[in-house]
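User: Structure tokens for this complex, please. No commentary.
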Amino acid sequence: MTDQFAYPPDREEASAKKVAALEALLIEKGVITPQTVDKVLAYFETEMTPLNGKKIVVKAWTDPAFAEKVVVDTPGAIAEMNLPDGMAGAEGEHLQAVANTSGVHNLVICTLCSCFPWPVLGLPPYWYKDPTFRSRAAREPRKVLAEVGVDLPADTEIKVWDSSGHSRWFVIPERPSGTEGFTDEMLMDLVTTEAMIGVALAGPAS
Amino acid sequence: MKLQHYLGGLEGLPEDLTLEKRVFVEDWEKRIFGIHVAMMGLSKHLGTALPEYPIDGVSTAFQDEWTWADLRTGAEAMNPFDYFKFRYYEKWLGGITQFFVDKGYVTEEELTAKVGGLTPATGTPEAAIDDQVIAYLRLGDSPRRDVAHPNFPVGSAVRIANPAADAHSRLPGYLRGRTGTVERVFEGDYAYFTHTGDGIGDPMPIYIVEFEPTDIWGPRAEAGPEKLYAELFEAYLTPIEEKS
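Assistant:
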């Protein structure tokens, strides 16, 4: 066997220098400005974050008419909410929500790349882009879910959505029982990015 | 065939998944992500995208197209060993750097010199560049082009096409030749950023096709009630003739 899978000892340091060099040259040559990358990052740190998705989920939990609409006309339902401008922007042009019920659990994957609903969930966590997760979740979602702590009843149907077209999918998880008296803020604390893709249930953060 | 087209269902990969919940695991990854988004937001094709961005009036030196299709084509072209070896943003760094070298924006010598002695970059703060990038993020780049002209109504039994693989595809390999049922026809026809060589590019309908896992994986399917749904361009669907 060769050293095909050996990494150089300065793996991260070398990448950091390379990307800094590339960014500096692109600035000098007028491709981007000294502020461009920071402005892009700020956009995702302040506006396009999972907070938007949490608000959508909690509205679906607390407003039956919205819950009905958000899975049929996701962009239309979201447009009625007071969320930042840009919910139909990059990677949100065609959002599509699917809702878990007592007998159905939804799981969103992207086996070809890493399609993700940026405006409502922010940027994808590493696990979503992991080739192992992507390959295994397509064929054995129930086993994968069990490994990450989601033990579903044997008769719960699992629906796997492979994002190979134009839609960007996210999941409305089920509202946990015993949360009847919760405020919207308390409910939002129960919703994670993982729950909105389907690899976790809504509940207290673990 | 390309392994990256056949990732779904590939067996033998490590079990006992742990979820790395961070978006970036190294600070440098943020910079290459930002550069990629800037390229997307400054791509020349945005002049004809919806909305029609005033891209020719933006004072950037970037004069090429850069879309998801370019990034994906690069990832699909990788040596599969490297594809598995390198982390997500390592692949981006390699692919995007190569693009700028290939297109003549930077040279290997310039990059090497910069790596050796990085000085703070000086550039002109052209607000129009940053404004265009943020406008792209807010307004997007919808591939929807027309009303739908679907050939397959909901409920149709379809067989998934098996076109020769080209540089890029939006057809998950594990679905090739499999049979499924049209579950939904989307409103509108949808273009793709480029002509992939395997049938997509021009505006066409997109469907959700429902598959029984046993029709995909045979005896390797999991037990228990499951369905798999894929969103597929019409070029990837073929009719199943009714038996008379």
